Amino acid sequence: NVLYAAAILRALPEARVVHVACDAMPQCFALLREPADDQHPFANDQAELVGYYLAFADWMRQLETAFPKRVQSVRYEQWRAVPGLVSRAVFRFCELPYEPGYEDPAANRKPIGSGSRSRVQAVPPAAESDLWRHSRALLAPLRGLLADAGLAARD
Asked: Residue 141 needs a FRET pair 20 to 30 A away by CA distance; which of 80, 107, 109, 148 works?
């Protein structure tokens, strides 16, 4: 859990954190379309969700600054584009041995967990990053707030 990352990094001096960062619009849309529970009430409101997203991004920057050699951010979109290259970099950062094929989750026969509460899958399809566009009109407030923060283009 990212809220405990600083405590974990202090308690475990060899621990590493890999932060997979996604573009703001698809990430916020993914949270909005999942049913929110008591732990995630912000996910029901576009303005609250943007506030949470900004706070999360700020927290990750603080972690990267406080633990520069132990926290690594990886762009999800880059990982999708060149999975072998990014996977090797992550394994190197974690000081783990890498073998060809690790970048292909479809070849993995072990269970893979997901941040999604309603579904578990190995790798979200690249096309999912554009699903929010089908709800563009409904997401105008979200897009406007993200644009105000410099995280999305204005229409």
From this structure: 80
Q: What is the pTM of this model?
A: 0.77
Report the alpha-carbon distance of residue 118 to residue 59 in Å, rounded.
Answer: 26
Indicate if the pLDDT at residue 133 is higher than 90. no
Cα-trace Rg, the chain: 17
Record the tokens describing residue 9, joined without a space: 């990094």
- Find the largest Cα–Cα distance for the chain: 47
Q: Tokens 């290259």 — which residue? A: 85
DSSP output for 78-147 = HHHHSHHHHHHHHHHHTT----TTTT-GGG--S----S-SS---SS--GGGGGGGGGGTTTTHHHHHHHH
